[in-house]
């Protein structure tokens, strides 16, 4: 019997497997695809999830350099956000890694940690009782097998079989009048990049190099790799007759050229990426925004796109779902989870899903054509001119605006929030970043009191690592940090610490 069976070997499933192995439990990942998906999909991570990967030592492995630093700017609804004015309060971190490479890194890490990943396995059904989950799957050899685990997690995408068979509703909306087209193209002599994040297009002139809204739609150009720029169009107008053969027909570069001409008003001949480079030609008819009614059914959980889909940063959400769920499953399997710990997964992550769906739908509305939307954008730009509003929007986009309920409130400390970055001097005199102390995904008590809390924490030494340290910019005398990076308690009161340890890490 396995501890946990994970259905789906994409980023959510692989990261969940890594987190479970760090916590000392045995997962099995079942993935339908016989080989990793070579398609070019998501092109980066944004917000506090970047710091989560840094906590696990994966930031540099995914192409980051040094340590994460806040991005000087970002976009909302195609509108530029001058985040540099926020200074130390800027929560927006960026990691321009495409999903293909992210999956490769997570797959390599899962293998290093000893997680078993079976490719070419198609899950057909499951059943559960009070003690176990039986999963019927067809292996790569075509033979059906029943596998058993204590828990089952569906990370199997927006059309999740696990969610459907668990009877979990997936309510939401579809904006059927929006058609998105995306392509990776080769270099072109018809456009060149200009200073200040702009691009000069022959026949049109100079426009923003990211989002450019016109009366007919939105044109987006991203050039993380100048040899393979990514372009996207979004059109709200009625689809012209013969615009494309049908939603199931492959998209072509000619169709992309036609869409660019409708949006920009100029013809831009397109060429494919250099030979041997990944390609992408994708058409999406309609924008789906859906959030699962619940994230759990008995011993069955859902995470990632199985729990939420939107035209937004769902990959950011997926990895944080995995980090939140993994340590709670592990604590339950190892017998030290407090009552109700597993239920807190849905409570905490559902709220984050709601926020992402809200802001992605708002961003779509702000990019739609029309005079009314133009007026709304002018008003919104004025509001963003105020630092307090810019700070709120930045936190929303970074996923840093959701505070978990940790019980006792500490208004002057970061209780319930994702832990801030800290530079520490540990008891042995070493200078360490806090992120380096979170590599093992264990609960961590950072004791800055000089050891005054050692006796209080001692009964939890088996589950909670304690580090005595000093820090010049610490927000509290001590921080109790959950494995997913959230501060469960902050302060110096031994009774408060004992209550938090009891609530999150064992009955004591």
Automatic annotation (TrEMBL):
Required cofactor(s): FAD
Source taxon at top rank: Bacteria
UniProt keyword S-adenosyl-L-methionine, yes or no: no
Keywords assigned by UniProt, alphabetized: FAD, Flavoprotein
Example GO molecular function: FAD binding
Domain FAD-binding: 2-358
This protein's name: 2-polyprenyl-6-methoxyphenol hydroxylase-like FAD-dependent oxidoreductase
Lineage, broadest ranks: Bacteria, Bacillati, Actinomycetota, Actinomycetes, Streptosporangiales
């Amino acid at each position: 019997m396995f501890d946990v069976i994970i259905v789906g070997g994409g980023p959510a499933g692989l990261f969940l497997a890594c987190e479970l192995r760090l916590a000392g439990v045995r997962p099995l990942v079942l993935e339908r695809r016989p080989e990793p998906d070579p398609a070019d999909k998501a092109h980066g991570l944004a917000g506090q999830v970047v710091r989560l990967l840094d906590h696990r030592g994966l930031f540099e492995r995914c192409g980051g350099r040094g340590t994460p630093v806040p991005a000087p700017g970002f976009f909302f609804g195609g509108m530029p956000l001058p985040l540099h004015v926020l200074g130390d309060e800027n929560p927006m971190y960026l990691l321009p890694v495409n999903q293909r490479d992210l999956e490769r890194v997570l797959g390599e890490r899962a293998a290093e940690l000893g997680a078993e990943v079976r490719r070419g396995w198609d899950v057909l059904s499951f059943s559960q009782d009070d003690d176990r989950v039986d999963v019927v799957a067809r292996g790569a050899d075509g033979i059906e097998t029943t596998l058993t685990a204590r828990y089952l997690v569906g990370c199997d995408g927006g059309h999740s079989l696990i969610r459907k068979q668990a009877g979990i509703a997936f309510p939401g909306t579809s904006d059927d009048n929006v058609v998105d087209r995306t392509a990776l193209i080769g270099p072109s002599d018809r456009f060149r990049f200009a200073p200040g994040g702009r691009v000069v297009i022959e026949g049109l002139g100079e426009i923003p190099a990211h989002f450019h809204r016109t009366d007919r739609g939105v044109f987006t150009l991203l050039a993380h790799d100048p040899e393979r720029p990514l372009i996207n169009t979004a059109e709200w107008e009625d689809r012209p007759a013969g615009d494309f053969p049908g939603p199931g027909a492959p998209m072509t570069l000619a169709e992309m050229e036609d869409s660019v001409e409708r949006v920009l008003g100029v013809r831009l001949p397109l060429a494919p990426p250099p030979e041997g480079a990944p390609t992408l030609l994708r058409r999406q008819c309609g924008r789906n925004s859906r959030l699962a009614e619940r994230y759990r059914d008995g011993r069955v959980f859902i995470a990632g796109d199985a729990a939420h889909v939107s035209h937004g940063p769902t990959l950011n959400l997926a990895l944080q779902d995995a980090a939140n769920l993994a340590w709670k499953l592990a604590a339950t399997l190892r017998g030290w989870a407090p009552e109700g710990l597993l239920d807190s997964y849905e409570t905490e992550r559902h709220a984050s899903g709601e926020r992402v769906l809200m802001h992605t739908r708002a961003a779509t509305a702000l990019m739609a054509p029309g005079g009314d939307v133009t007026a709304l954008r002018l008003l919104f730009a004025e509001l963003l001119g105020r630092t307090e509003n810019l700070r709120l929007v930045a936190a929303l986009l970074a996923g840093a605006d959701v505070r978990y309920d940790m019980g006792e409130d500490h208004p002057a400390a970061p209780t319930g929030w994702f832990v801030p970055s800290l530079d520490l001097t540990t008891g042995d005199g070493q200078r360490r970043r806090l992120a380096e102390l979170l590599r093992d995904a264990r609960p961590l008590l950072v004791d800055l009191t000089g050891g005054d809390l050692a006796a209080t924490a001692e009964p939890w030494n088996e589950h909670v690592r304690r580090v005595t340290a000093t820090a010049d910019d610490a927000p509290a005398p001590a921080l109790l940090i959950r494995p997913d990076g959230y501060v469960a308690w902050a302060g110096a009161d031994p009774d408060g610490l004992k209550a938090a340890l009891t609530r999150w890490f064992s009955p004591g």
